[in-house]
Specification:
Blueprint: H1 8-23, E1 26-31, E2 40-45, E3 51-53, H2 60-72, E4 82-84, H3 90-93, H4 96-103, E5 106-110, H5 113-118, H6 120-137, H7 142-155, E6 166-168, E7 173-175, E8 180-185, E9 194-198, E10 203-207, H8 237-249, E11 255-258, H9 267-291, H10 296-304, H11 312-328, E12 332-337, E13 340-345
Parallel strand pairs: 3-4, 4-5, 5-6, 10-11
Antiparallel strand pairs: 1-2, 2-3, 7-8, 8-9, 9-10, 12-13
Helix pairs in contact: 6-7, 8-9, 9-11, 10-11
Zinc ion (ZN) binds at residues 87, 89, 189-190, 208.
């Protein structure tokens, strides 16, 4: 997960851009999470309706800090009129049910994400079943898989079920009094990643689609709406993500507001860096496969060694993403034996 250090000038540019956005009613509220990623950015839009994009996880600490951040702007949770949810990860939507209950705010999310949020416990369970099958199929030891299952179950408390009252379609316009946000479905980091684009101001709220200081993981996930009986084909998260990044690269944007870390004022070089990094990584992985067939887990182990249990699914997703790229190019093929897949050079 490659970093990208900020220069002092870039920091200043980012802060100046945020100050301009604030004059226009957009405020970044960094909410604590218990996860390795650190704080998550919720965005308050002082407009009509009074809108919050993402909420932070379902924890007393997150609620407390959000409440204080709103109060610093002269608002209470009860004043919120619309909650917009960017994607299906718990650090972004966990608090939404409490906020919706207390404020009566409309809850807006992409069509497909509505079903996920409305039955979060079942969906999280299905995600775990999918992840478990994927990990075993790609060579992760059974003890690691069951440890990860326990971790995932304990994380679930930071999510919550929330009823979406306004379903959004890709390309639809979400109208506030002073601005119009175009809804753009840009999957890859997750199946439900949604950007909210203020075309007139050349601004976009992008959540985890693009982050400045870390590269977003193209997490392999069950397709939205797929049930327990889902049998594939395996979704191509990285291939999907790269196409989504290309689409965002083509946009003229002065300010990109991410779900973690600092604002992005130069999205094109950042996207180019991400695409180059992925291309280089695919070649390194191809080199390992060309030596002899390996499982995705073996490739991950060669590249990153013994990673923490919590990182095992991330690194597996990363390898599988690159295997998809190489298979689509006709350079690598899957060989399955006793339910375990090895990748081999063609
Ligand atoms: Zn995310």
């Amino acid at each position: 997960m490659s970093g990208f250090a900020l220069t002092e000038e870039e920091k200043r540019e980012g802060e100046a851009a945020m100050a301009r956005a604030a004059q226009d009613g957009v405020h970044c509220l960094a909410i604590p999470t218990p996860f390795q990623v650190g704080r998550v950015n919720a965005y308050l839009i002082e407009d009509e309706p009074l809108t919050l994009i993402d909420s932070g996880p379902n924890s007393a600490k997150a609620l407390d800090e959000l409440e204080r951040a709103l109060a610093a702007r002269g608002h209470a949770i009860e004043d919120l009129e619309m909650l917009v949810i960017s994607h299906q990860h718990i650090d972004h939507f966990g608090l939404a049910s409490i906020l919706a209950r207390r404020s009566g705010a409309e809850v807006a999310a992409l069509s497909g994400l509505d079903g996920y949020l409305g039955s979060f416990r079942e969906q999280a369970e299905l995600d775990d079943v999918f992840a478990e099958e994927t990990m075993l199929r790609h060579g992760l030891p059974a003890d690691v898989v069951s440890a990860l299952r326990a971790v995932s179950a304990s994380f679930r408390a930071w999510g919550s079920t929330v009823e979406v009252t306004r379903t959004l379609r890709d390309g639809e316009q979400l109208r506030l009094r002073e601005r119009t946000l175009t809804v753009l479905h840009r999957p890859g980091h997750s199946p439900s990643d949604t950007l909210f684009w203020d075309e007139r101001r050349s601004q976009a709220f992008v959540a985890d689609h693009l982050i400045r200081h870390i590269s977003s993981n193209p997490l392999l996930a069950r397709p939205l709406g797929a049930g327990r009986d889902f049998t594939g084909p395996r979704p191509q998260a990285l291939v999907t993500y790269m196409a989504s990044m290309e689409a965002t690269r083509a946009m003229d944007l002065d300010l990109v507001l991410p779900g973690h870390g600092r604002p992005i004022v130069d999205h094109r070089p950042l996207i180019d860096l991400r695409l180059r990094t992925h291309a280089r990584r695919a070649e390194r992985m191809y080199g390992l496969i060309a030596e002899h067939p390996r499982t995705a887990h073996e490739v991950a182990h060669e590249l990153w060694g013994n990673v923490a249990v919590t990182q095992a699914y991330l690194t597996l997703s990363e390898v599988l993403g690159h295997m998809d790229v190489l298979m689509n190019a006709g350079r690598v093929e899957e060989q399955e034996q006793d339910g375990v897949v090895r990748f081999a050079a063609v």
